Amino acid sequence: MTQTDKLLKIHLLLPFIWMVVIFIFSQQPASISSGQSNVFVEQLHHIVPSIDQQLLTFMIRKSAHIFAYFILGILLFNALWRAELRKLPFDRPTMSSIIICALYAASDEFHQLFVSGRSGEIRDIIIDGIAASIGVVLIGYIYKRSKAAR
């Protein structure tokens, strides 16, 4: 196995590892998930006491969605790009990455319906899809720009 093959396997594995991380956080009951969010909320509330704690909680929880799916979009695009799907007639890595992220977000929200105290929300699927799309478009732009510069 060449060094290039090893690197490709690593790049293909990274999005799946990240999906497992997302799944682990989604698997946590509401009591644990809220406790983790509250650590950040309390810190921010000391810095900006004028902002309502419920609003801070909402912002922290949605920021976690944005971060998780932004990274997933980047990792998926990177894996598909390196798997040379970019040589196909249309921009397959971009569309494939966005579709996979959106489907994973939907499955993640469905999964949360079965976790104690959690709920699946269409709003979160939309947030996740937008975050992933931004990550995919950003990394795609960077890759294409660096390729054009060569």
Low-pLDDT runs: none
Question: What is the number of helices?
Answer: 5
How many domains would you count in the coordinates? 1
Q: Tell me the series of helices and strands, N- to C-terminal.
A: HHHHH
State the end-to-end distance.
28 Å
Q: For the report, how would you describe the main beta sheet?
A: none
Structure characterization notes:
The chain is an all-alpha fold and 150 residues long. The protein has one domain (3-34, 62-149). It has helices at residues 3-27, 30-47, 53-82, 92-112, 122-149. α1 (3-27) packs antiparallel against α3 (53-82) and α3 crosses α4. The chain is elongated, with a radius of gyration of 18 Å. The relative contact order is 0.14. The mean pLDDT is 90.
Chart the SSEs and their pairings.
Blueprint: H1 3-27, H2 30-47, H3 53-82, H4 92-112, H5 122-149
Helix pairs in contact: 1-3, 1-4, 2-3, 3-4, 3-5, 4-5
Keywords:
150 residues; mainly alpha; 5 helices; 81% helix; 0% strand
Provide a compact summary of the structure.
It contains 5 helices and no strands. The chain has 150 residues and is mainly α.
